[in-house]
Amino acid sequence: MTIQWYPGHMAKAQKQIKERLKAVDLILEIVDARVPESSINPMIAELGQNKPILLIMNKADMADAKRTQQWIETFKKRGITAIALDAQHKSKLPQIEKVAQEILADKLAKKRAKGILNPVIRAMCVGVPNVGKSTILNRLVQKNIAITGNKPGVTKNQQWLKAGQSLELLDTPGVLWPKFEDPAVGNKLALTGAISDAIYHADDVVVYALDYFKDFYPHQLEKEYHVTAAELELEVPDLIMALTKRLGFKEDYDRFCTKFITDARKGKLGRFTLDIIPVEAQA
Ligand SMILES: Nc1nc2c(ncn2[C@@H]2O[C@H](COP(=O)(O)OP(=O)(O)OP(=O)(O)O)[C@@H](O)[C@H]2O)c(=O)[nH]1
Ligand SMILES: [Mg+2]
């Protein structure tokens, strides 16, 4: 997908999401567990106003497990419920409904007190591109029926899908482009595939990523590219040249950069998380 950075498109997407959010009890914000903070879209909290949010850290199978746990605790300190998920391998999907019920316990209790025996939770999946919204939606809904489908006069926007006992999801997930001023955030989103390959330079991303892997995941570089202890001491551009040669790409460092990004996305460089736990949350 290509990101169109035109203000008009952005405004239209925002308006649509805002409109749809009016009808929901809960926002399921899907983020990538490798960049749990950088893939949060600040516009979602703005547009959702005071709607409760359940943060789903998807692709947890590719993230650093220890960091995932630390991020869940960090979010908790910030008053946000977050859960880790691996939607591709279907692990922990039922937890979404259970946690949604916990978040909305008061609201559901009130509905029950009014005589509604099985109150539903209406939710909408939102998230930046490629974090796994469609995968989650399809897995949750399975082959359940579309509740308001096929009725004339019902707008496509308002089609609700049954997911589990009490969840109902809007059929079209909300996508918003990431918004960032910090170039590091851009590099992180590029490496994990949330922003289109057309809008960043592979070498910038790799300079950033190799520097980070040298600090946090040196063994993963040793394992995949046979990086030596001496090479870990090199400046990143020199390391890039050394690896370009090692892989037989001669002077073609662009080729190495493209390969590095592909390897990282395929999990060949092992599990990693690019967002560091903030110091205030470690206390
Ligand atoms: N490893 C892993 N891959 C996943 C997981 N969930 C989704 N994917 C993969 O990530 C890619 C993107 O998933 P989608 O469900 O299409 O993501 P999306 O958020 O709907 O993407 P857009 O519609 O483009 O915004 C696909 O190749 C999925 O198979 C997961 O938990 N783990
Ligand atoms: Mg999708």
TrEMBL record:
Q: Where is the CP-type G domain?
A: 11-178
Do you know which InterPro entries this protein is assigned to?
Answer: G_CP_dom, GTP-bd, GTP-bd_ortho_bundle_sf, GTP-bd_ribosome_bgen, GTPase_MTG1, P-loop_NTPase
Please give the start and end residues of each transmembrane region: none
**A molecular-function term among this protein's GO annotations:** GTPase activity
GO BP annotations of the record are: translation
Q: Write out the residues that bind GTP.
A: 58-61, 130-135, 174
Localization, per the record, is: Cytoplasm
Q: Do you know which Pfam families this protein is assigned to? A: MMR_HSR1
What are the entry keywords?
A: Cytoplasm, GTP-binding, Nucleotide-binding
> Gene Ontology cellular component?
cytoplasm
Similarity comment: Belongs to the TRAFAC class YlqF/YawG GTPase family. MTG1 subfamily.
Q: What does this protein do?
A: Required for a late step of 50S ribosomal subunit assembly. Has GTPase activity.
Q: What is the name of this protein?
A: Ribosome biogenesis GTPase A
Organism, scientific name: Latilactobacillus graminis DSM 20719
